[in-house]
Write a structure and sequence with these properties.
The model has no long low-confidence stretch (mean pLDDT 97). The chain has 323 residues and is of the alpha/beta class. Bound molecules: nicotinamide-adenine-dinucleotide.
Amino acid sequence: MKILVTGCAGFIGYHFTNNILSKRNISVIGIDNINDYYDVNIKKNRLKNLKLKKNFTFYKIDLLEFNKLNKLIKKNKIKYIIHLAAQAGVRFSIENPRTYFDNNIKGFFNILEISKINNIKHLIYASTSSVYGDNKEFPLSEEYKTDSPLSFYAASKKTNEVMAHSYSYIYKIPSTGVRFFTVYGPFGRPDMALFKFTKNILNNKQIELFNGGLHVRDFTYVDDIINGIISIINRPSKKEIPYNIFNIGNGKPKKLLDYLKNIEKYLNKKAKIKKLPIQTGDIVKTHADIKKLKKYSNYVPRTNIEKGILKFIDWYKEYYKID
Ligand SMILES: NC(=O)c1ccc[n+]([C@@H]2O[C@H](COP(=O)([O-])OP(=O)(O)OC[C@H]3O[C@@H](n4cnc5c(N)ncnc54)[C@H](O)[C@@H]3O)[C@@H](O)[C@H]2O)c1
């Protein structure tokens, strides 16, 4: 099976590619534009690891380069696409909505067109728990209302789901949107809490806790996310409209303050905390209802936050050569 992975130098794209390449008879064509939203060296080092694997080929291509991307897919006779490239981040979208429009909406349109032209057998694309906005009923089920996003990031991802539905209906493109819940793990994103907290605690710097740390998140270890994606690759919807949406989460939400306590415990060091008010666009609580995916593909999340945070900290210390 030949798979196109977009965003393969990103956090989740890297882990997905690394994992799937350990299976038999898989080859991956990876693309990424290596943008500088965060430290480019992290992306380069992820790629360096991937390039050690056989059956992996990388192309530096932007989603907006339609002809290049289309040619690549035609030439390689690709039939499966895992679309993970995007401009991520809720807070960054408040100051920079246009980059979300370009990368997430226009970029996704190209992926849909390419899926249509090349008769893709299954398009899986990343969506987010942010599409649930400030729903007050928990756990968050796929059936709940998602048409009141609180950030333009969430709006761009909800737009993807709606666009995919029309392509699945009109052109019968089998598509599955996967709504990830706060993903964390080794080689994670420097703009996310675990990375920022660890870095600042080690450097004796203050950490900023929005909403006083009272946010509740369904923190999901990256390997669980990857296993969730892998469990459905060969299971596109067989319905009249071949369209599906799944939550991929852990199902056990935790307070951000408890998450922080674990980081402090494993670093054996207290954080200097600066409590700040809630930010526009932030959601107070997420809690994934994961019954749908469990029933569909036997998905079971296996890593609790204690184990997951420890794995991240081990990676961080090794990567930055800290004793
Ligand atoms: N990490 C999370 O907690 C989380 C939660 C929900 C959803 N998601 C979604 O999962 C996907 C992967 O997220 P991530 O955390 O790995 O983010 P990431 O930023 O680490 O990875 C995204 C990658 O896409 C690349 N990219 C961006 N725009 C591109 C373009 N126009 N052309 C080619 N490459 C481009 C970036 O260079 C980056 O390497 C994204 O769609 C994100 O919105 C992530």
